[in-house]
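Intended use. Records like the one below are meant for learning the mapping from a protein sequence to its folded structure. Do not use them to infer anything beyond what is encoded.
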Amino acid sequence: MTLASLPFWFILSLYGLKASGPPSGNQIVQSGVVAVFSGVIATVLFFRATDLVRGDMQKLSLVEATQSLEVLFALFGEMAILPVAAPSLLSWFGIITVAAGMVLHSLMSRKPVAPAAWKMKKSEISG
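Structure written out for the chain above:
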């Protein structure tokens, strides 16, 4: 999807270059930091984690959920490392709404465990 949209981003960057001029040195550094941390390190860690839990669907879903929090990790990391302003109140409301939606979806789509599965066998209790 990213590859197919490259012409759009190229045209948009040319428009931005003409309208606002070239990016500042600080913007280039910030873009480089984001590219390295989210584009390289996080991707390698994500694929390694999915490889480690490929046989357990419940653990795999936890790994996938961490990817959805990438925006928050990037936001807090940027605020900690770079001199950027905190998000507006409306932005925080959006972040909280999305996070709450993910939690509610996770809770509502969880399969209940059958009561028979809760009972332990006598051999499991005695060890």
